[in-house]
Amino acid sequence: MNEVILYDYWRSSASYRVRIALCLLGIPYRTEPIDLVAGMHKSPEFRERNPQGLVPALQIDGVLLTQSLAIIEYLDETHKGADFLPNDAVGRQHVRALSHVIAMDIHPVCNLGVVGNVMKMAEAHGDDPTEIRLAWMRKYIAEGLNAFERLLDPANSGGFCHGDRPSMADICLIPQVFNAKRWGVDIGGLNAVNRIAERCLAMDAFARAHPDLCPR
Fold first, then answer.
1. What architecture does CATH give domain 5-83?
2. For 194-207, what is each residue's pLDDT tens digit?
3. Which residues are bridge partners to 87 per DSSP?
């Protein structure tokens, strides 16, 4: 069996999602740290693996996969019993919609490259880039998670985002909750989000994927 290699940055929420999925499936993997702050993702060597210069990238089954949600869906399709997406079309749509709130709406405006440019523009206009970054992160994370909370369907929640086991939506939610806490976003009023996060983080797979346990 080919070795599974995850090209990872410990604080990347997209990488965190893939770590959770691999741990939920019990797939052993080796981490190759890609230090985004040091610019390792821009190196010619890494761009040979992923022309976008983004993490994660996952070497598995003889292929190199990119884009966290596409990787999670691949793992769901290739591992019986993963059930990261429900069997019914409406359920799949709901889980994908929740996942996209985080991965396609919150994440893109809060990633390293975008926020770095925001800070440069703030500095050019004489503003404090650190304060601008903090306000930016808090605004978009808070707005996104508040919308996520409203999109949760209590009728279809068995303790998780959809159903009685973690789905792709839960895999996306936990890294975003981590980011919310990192940036001091007030999510105390998001009762469902906090309840789901507590349940997930009590599970071994989620605990083992935590950034604090990652090679750097």
1. 3-Layer(aba) Sandwich (3.40)
2. 999 999 999 999 99
3. none
